[in-house]
């Protein structure tokens, strides 16, 4: 290949190549010249191809090899290079993808908590004056969210006690479980056992103490549980579509969280929604025709509600959260976990298959959807704060938004509270029996029209009466609140001629 000493090479590429050859001797067995006159030190005669093949590190079953980069041949963590990997110390752990063979338990958890902490700090999710309510379902995602929020609170408490002036208070934490047994009944034995387990989980957390709420879904109607159960049962009986029932359940769950947060003075609602769940929602919303409002549901912050909702686990995969629960022995409650059905169930199965083929599928779906332009309410309101104005300008520059794109929409869906593309617009409905039915139909998004609203136009008004009052007034309140917000931050929005400096 080369016929002389290094100084005889006049081509810079050849010189550079020989330098690489000298420093990476183990990789060039097949590229050696085997010439007796070669004095370039290309390592051609010391090792044969067969010997090189014997030194090639084997590939493990989980796709983690022993070469370079993220591969390791001795079973040591690629981050700390001291401890053994999870695959070596916890052979029974089957989830977690390639992280099992790359990181030790401590480094894995540190990386996972780092994602959580970065999401919280970079999006101003939790401040010292906040009182946050953690939505707890008993599953791995909400369990990890509760644990990480608790650890942040513990650190804030230690800093408060160590501070002399003690100017920064410690944010409060509450936990809420939404009881949906009226919609999907369970045995009293299973129900009581699951609730007791949740109470023990919350009580086992170190001080500061956290209040635990069990909120029945029917409480969004009135304090009369009997009347609320009857109306809730009749409402779900009026929805014939399986997917529509599940979607309506999600909307009522959010209303229940908002209700308990408002009544008990909480300022933020923390959800355990992770990358895997968002990836499923992206495809579900696409299939259901919710493309316009999709960007509103997949951001770190959703402040269209009276109490802003934050997603600190947005960058974490469900496999990572499951493995964290196993490694940290975090107890979960599976009594109320039920498989999804309809369109949602099909999408979940599809995404699961994609993830098995390529562990980066879910993250790719979320990153792709993240390129959508977010709405103005996808940030923590900072009205009246100069830092808030600067943060708004930075956000406008980051997403390359124009003022018209950053303004809140004028209308929201009557049922799901998703922003509508055409405010006060009329859709191509087929109702001709009265003005009220047409207005109800025009006030909902296409997904709710086809999956939740009754097909018979004569039943629309009765269906409207079955909806909770908080749902029927929410769209109007959201529209009024965001009009006020738009007026207040108008001076902070970039103009077309502003360079964002």
TrEMBL record:
<keyword id="KW-0963">Cytoplasm</keyword>
<dbReference type="GO" id="GO:0032447">
    <property type="term" value="P:protein urmylation"/>
</dbReference>
<dbReference type="GO" id="GO:0016779">
    <property type="term" value="F:nucleotidyltransferase activity"/>
</dbReference>
<dbReference type="GO" id="GO:0000049">
    <property type="term" value="F:tRNA binding"/>
</dbReference>
<dbReference type="Pfam" id="PF10288">
    <property type="entry name" value="CTU2"/>
</dbReference>
<comment type="function">
    <text>Plays a central role in 2-thiolation of mcm(5)S(2)U at tRNA wobble positions of tRNA(Lys), tRNA(Glu) and tRNA(Gln). May act by forming a heterodimer with NCS6/CTU1 that ligates sulfur from thiocarboxylated URM1 onto the uridine of tRNAs at wobble position.</text>
</comment>
<dbReference type="InterPro" id="IPR014729">
    <property type="entry name" value="Rossmann-like_a/b/a_fold"/>
</dbReference>
<dbReference type="GO" id="GO:0016783">
    <property type="term" value="F:sulfurtransferase activity"/>
</dbReference>
<comment type="similarity">
    <text>Belongs to the CTU2/NCS2 family.</text>
</comment>
<dbReference type="GO" id="GO:0005829">
    <property type="term" value="C:cytosol"/>
</dbReference>
<dbReference type="GO" id="GO:0002143">
    <property type="term" value="P:tRNA wobble position uridine thiolation"/>
</dbReference>
<comment type="pathway">
    <text>tRNA modification; 5-methoxycarbonylmethyl-2-thiouridine-tRNA biosynthesis.</text>
</comment>
<dbReference type="InterPro" id="IPR019407">
    <property type="entry name" value="CTU2"/>
</dbReference>
<keyword id="KW-0819">tRNA processing</keyword>
<protein>
    <recommendedName>
        <fullName>Cytoplasmic tRNA 2-thiolation protein 2</fullName>
    </recommendedName>
</protein>
């Amino acid at each position: 290949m080369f016929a002389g000493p290094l100084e005889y090479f006049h081509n810079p590429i050849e010189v550079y190549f020989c330098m690489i050859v000298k420093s990476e001797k183990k990789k060039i067995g097949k590229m050696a010249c085997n010439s007796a006159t070669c004095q370039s030190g290309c390592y051609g005669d010391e090792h044969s191809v067969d010997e090189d093949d014997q030194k090639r590190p084997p590939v493990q079953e989980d796709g983690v090899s022993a070469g370079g980069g993220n591969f390791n041949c001795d079973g040591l963590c690629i981050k700390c290079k001291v401890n053994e990997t999870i695959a070596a110390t916890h052979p029974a752990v089957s989830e977690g993808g390639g992280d099992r063979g790359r990181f030790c338990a401590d480094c894995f958890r540190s990386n996972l908590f780092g994602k959580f902490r970065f999401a919280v700090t970079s999006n101003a999710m939790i401040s010292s004056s906040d009182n946050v309510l953690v939505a707890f379902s008993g599953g791995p995602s909400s369990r990890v969210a509760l644990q990480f929020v608790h650890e942040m609170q513990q650190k804030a408490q230690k800093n408060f006690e160590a501070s002399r002036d003690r100017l920064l208070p410690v944010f409060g934490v509450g936990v809420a479980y939404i009881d949906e047994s009226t919609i999907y009944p369970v045995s009293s034995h299973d129900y009581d056992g699951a609730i007791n387990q949740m109470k023990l989980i919350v009580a086992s957390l170190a001080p500061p103490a956290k209040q635990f709420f069990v909120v029945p879904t029917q409480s969004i109607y009135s304090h009369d549980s009997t009347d609320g159960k009857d109306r809730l049962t009749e409402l779900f009986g009026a929805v014939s579509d399986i997917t529509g029932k599940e979607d309506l359940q999600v909307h009522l769950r959010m209303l229940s969280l908002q209700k308990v947060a408002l009544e008990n003075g909480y300022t933020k609602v923390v959800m355990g929604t992770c990358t895997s769940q968002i990836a499923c929602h992206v495809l579900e919303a696409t299939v259901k025709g919710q493309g316009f409002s999709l960007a509103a549901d997949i951001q770190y912050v959703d402040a269209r509600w009276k109490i802003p909702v934050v997603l600190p686990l947005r960058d974490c995969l469900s496999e990572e959260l499951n493995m964290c629960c196993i490694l940290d022995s975090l107890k979960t409650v599976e009594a109320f976990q039920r498989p999804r059905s309809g369109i949602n169930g099909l999408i979940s199965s599809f995404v699961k298959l994609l993830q098995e083929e390529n562990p980066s599928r879910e993250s790719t779906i979320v990153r792709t959807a993240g390129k959508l332009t977010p709405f103005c309410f996808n940030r923590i309101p900072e009205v009246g704060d100069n830092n808030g104005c600067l943060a708004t300008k930075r956000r406008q520059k980051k997403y390359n938004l124009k003022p018209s794109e950053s303004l809140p929409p004028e209308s929201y869906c009557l049922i799901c509270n998703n922003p509508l593309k055409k405010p006060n617009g009329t859709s191509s409905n087929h109702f001709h029996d009265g003005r009220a039915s047409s207005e109800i139909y025009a006030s909902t998004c296409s997904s709710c029209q086809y999956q939740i609203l009754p097909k018979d136009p004569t039943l629309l008004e009765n269906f409207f009466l079955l909806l909770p009052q908080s749902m029927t007034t929410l769209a109007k309140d959201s529209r009024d609140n965001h009009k006020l917000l738009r007026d207040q931050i108008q001076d902070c929005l970039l103009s077309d001629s502003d360079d964002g400096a």
